[in-house]
Amino acid sequence: MENAERQLRAAQNQMLFRSVNDQIMEAGEKLGDSRGEVDFACECADDTCVEKIRLSPHQFLGIESEANRFIVLRGHELPEVEDVIAERNGFLIVSKRGAGAEFVHEHS
């Protein structure tokens, strides 16, 4: 049961960071921000993380289009609750599993 609780807690934290990144996207669109890259919040499970990941809005939207995909810096992944789906320049794309994946799908 402890692992399921950890998976759920990690997913909840990552969904919070995802909502922050969605607001970053909205603000950029409203301001007509045409910069090539934007600083997005690392969507890791650590609720105290303040690290940024720089990528284009187009890249972010491509990752976000899959509900169970999150951007995290290398070293911020949690192998016990998520799988690394892809590696990019300076960051990883991870996918929740177990109770965390269920939570993400229910709340996306």
Question: What does this protein structure show overall?
Answer:
This protein is α+β, with helices and mostly antiparallel strands. The chain has one domain (2-106). 42% of the residues lie in helices and 23% in strands. It is built from three helices and five strands, in the order αββαβββα. It has helices at 2-30, 57-64, 99-106; strands at 38-41, 52-55, 70-73, 82-88, 91-96. Strands 3-5-4 form a three-stranded antiparallel beta sheet. Strands 1-2 form a two-stranded antiparallel ribbon. Helix 1 runs parallel beside helix 3 (99-106). The relative contact order is 0.22.
Task: Describe, in short, the structure shown.
The chain has 108 residues and is of the alpha+beta class. It has one domain. It has helices at 2-30, 57-64, 99-106, and strands at 38-41, 52-55, 70-73, 82-88, 91-96.
Write the SSE topology.
Elements: H1 2-30, E1 38-41, E2 52-55, H2 57-64, E3 70-73, E4 82-88, E5 91-96, H3 99-106
Antiparallel strand pairs: 1-2, 3-5, 4-5
Descriptive terms for the model:
globular, alpha+beta, three-stranded antiparallel beta sheet, two-stranded antiparallel ribbon, about 110 residues, about 25% strand
Radius of gyration: 13 Å
Structural class assignment = alpha+beta
Q: List the helices and strands in order.
A: HEEHEEEH
β-strand percent reads: 15-25%
The count of β-strands is: 5
Mean pLDDT score, rounded? 87
